[in-house]
Amino acid sequence: MASALLIDKYDRVARDLRVSLTDRCNLRCTYCMPAEGLEWIPTPLTLSDEETIRLIRIAVTELGIRQVRFTGGEPLLRKSLEKIIAATKQLQTDEGLSPHTAITTNALGLERRAKGLKAAGLDRVNISLDTLNADHYFQLTRRNRHADVLRGIDAALENGLTPVKVNSVVMPGINDPDIVDLALFAVRRGLNLRFIEQMPLGPREQWARAEMVTAAEILTSLESRFEISAASEPRGSAPAELWNVVDRLNPKIAGQIGIIASVSHPFCGACDRTRLTTDGAIRTCLFSRSETSLRDIMRAGATDAELADIWRTTMWAKKAGHDIDDPNFIQPQRTMSAIGG
Ligand code: SAM
Ligand code: SF4
């Protein structure tokens, strides 16, 4: 445990930092947030730009972090996103490189920001789009913004924020019939689409293990239209299992699609993530029920070395897995929007 890196007792090393830049959002996806009534974290309790940049610097220069992913809530709502990305890109990892940066975004307003984000040094985007059907999009997000997302995808491609990954949560009875259309769209446009099993991280009444659309069911839907074979690339710490797909009706339409089976086939053994919430807490896992706040210690004058030590100690205690299938599983207090997905 004396190592400088973020190692846990199962020998996993965290190289990927997820930074939540806000818990606020301009959508209300059913699997993530309640329609109303979720209180925002008061601004004085959230990290300032300088505090955020300081903790990212400690993670990269003292703790071995190599990739920084900005998320939320909706990270595009953070006005200083470009400034924080530019400061991150100035850092040097233990390999002597600038950290790889990405944002996970619902893409509302990306059309206007893509150029500036690229100029700030952003490498790549993950865009969340669950369906090509505008009515289903409204049912899922409770907002009528489907066209904005499509324009955001165009802007990401035009500005070289590539490879553009698309995250798609499959919800029973809403967008499960849309899997093939979204896959065709993604393969035609050269997008790296990843279907995601819904996790129990939103409003409690929204998730039921028995109703969840599983990775196996997603694969069966894809097989109705595509020839499918397992991709040969090693998966490493990537959560998505990759499949080669070829359209049976037009074999020129061919590419790869990922499926993230977080619930039915957890990949916790290969996890390389550590998380920082917008109010300055370190979380070792999306599903952690305890977290360690760095905010108050930092505000009380802790040195970089002290903050790095607390981060290491917190990561050492990371649990082996998320235990969703354990009958005693309890969902974390925070919803996904306040954790940072
Ligand atoms: N607002 C941004 C967005 O939607 O991309 C970033 C934050 S969002 C919490 C990050 C990712 O988590 C999104 O791709 C979203 O689809 C996914 N997500 C949210 N709730 C989820 C759930 N209950 N299960 C699986 N994925 C979820
Ligand atoms: Fe907002 Fe992203 Fe959650 Fe949807 S998934 S409500 S866009 S934070």
What does the model show?
- It is a single chain.
- This protein has helices at 49-63, 81-89, 110-120, 134-141, 146-158, 179-189, 215-223, 295-299, 304-316, 336-339; strands spanning 16-20, 67-71, 100-105, 124-128, 165-169, 192-196, 226-230, 241-247, 254-260, 273-276, 281-283, 292-293.
- The protein is α/β, with parallel strands linked by helices and 341 residues long.
- The chain has one domain: TIM Barrel (Alpha-Beta Barrel), CATH 3.20.20.70.
- A 12-stranded mixed sheet has the order 7-8-9-6-5-4-3-2-1-10-11-12.
- A hairpin with an 8-residue loop joins strand 11 (281-283) and strand 12 (292-293).
- Helix 1 packs parallel to helix 2, helix 1 (49-63) crosses helix 9 and helix 2 (81-89) packs parallel to helix 3.
- The longest helix has 15 residues, at 49-63.
- It is globular and about 65 Å long.
- The two termini are 28 Å apart.
- The model has no long low-confidence stretch (mean pLDDT 94).
- The site of iron/sulfur cluster has 13 residues, from helix 10.
